[in-house]
Amino acid sequence: MKWLLLVAPSLLTAALLSGCVSPAGPVATKPTETELSQQPLGFYTERLARQLFAQLDDSPLWLTRPQIAVSSFLPATALSLQDANSEQRDFANQLSESMLAHSRQFGYAVYEYRLSNEVVLAGEYEQALTRQLNEINRKGSANTLLTGTYTLQQDAVIVNARLIHIPSKQVLAAVTDYIPANVLWSTQQVNKRGAMFYRQSPPGDNK
């Protein structure tokens, strides 16, 4: 009997203490932060080209494979590189050069419309490409244009690529993809705030 009297108060005390303790809530998980990409620009342009050309494989519009010309990609809002800074122009041109290379690697005929009528032999180099219209042979068999636009975001560049049938202006294929910001600019020019990345313009760059 004495043993029961000693146990009863102990059980009552334990019950009261357990009622005062709040049940443990779920453990909060740390949100996954955006990671800097370890891939080069060519990785993303090849992915873009692969998605683009995959649409041509299913298109009934072509009896033969298209003859492709590639132009520089442009800012989606301005559709001009005239007011873009040098880094954006370099990106736009490199994007088109990469897409030209991928077009040929995927087996398509590619037309180089910047080819000069003559090869210029300088003292230390040879030049065969030009942007001077009077030096270019305008005859060519390209019937498809690979071009696109891009939009600068906080942590990436959104790229829109398309294949256009030149005679009819019909869009044969179109794709949208992204390229992380650090792929385009050095890590010294990309600041991280939380899970987002912000590009810092180099000194003297006001655009």
Description:
By secondary structure, the protein is an alpha/beta fold. The protein is built from 4 helices and 10 strands, in the order H-H-E-E-H-E-E-E-E-E-E-H-E-E. It has helices at 2-20, 41-57, 86-105, 181-184; strands spanning 67-70, 74-75, 109-110, 115-121, 126-129, 144-152, 156-165, 170-180, 190-193, 196-199. The strands form 3 sheets. Strands 1, 2, 3, 6, 7 and 8 form a 6-stranded mixed sheet that branches. Strand 9 (190-193) and strand 10 (196-199) form a beta hairpin. The radius of gyration is 30 Å and the shape is globular. The termini are far apart. Mean pLDDT is 75; it is low at 1-8, 11-34, 187-199 and 201-207.
Comma- or semicolon-separated keywords:
alpha/beta, six-stranded mixed sheet, two-stranded antiparallel sheet, disordered C terminus
What structural category do the secondary elements indicate?
A: alpha/beta
Taken as a percent bin, the fraction of beta residues is 25-35%
The overall average pLDDT, rounded, is 75
Tally the beta strands.
10
Approximate shape: globular
* Alpha plus pi helix count: 4
In whole angstroms, how far apart are the ends? 90 Å
Largest sheet, strands/sense/barrel:
6 strands, mixed
Instruction: Note the quaternary state here.
Output: single chain
Radius of gyration: 30 Å
Helix content: 25-40%
Unreliable spans are 1-8, 11-34, 187-199, 201-207
N-to-C SSE string, H for helix and E for strand: HHEEHEEEEEEHEE
SSE arrangement:
Blueprint: H1 2-20, H2 41-57, E1 67-70, E2 74-75, H3 86-105, E3 109-110, E4 115-121, E5 126-129, E6 144-152, E7 156-165, E8 170-180, H4 181-184, E9 190-193, E10 196-199
Parallel strand pairs: 1-3, 1-6, 2-6
Antiparallel strand pairs: 4-5, 6-7, 7-8, 9-10
Helix pairs in contact: 2-3
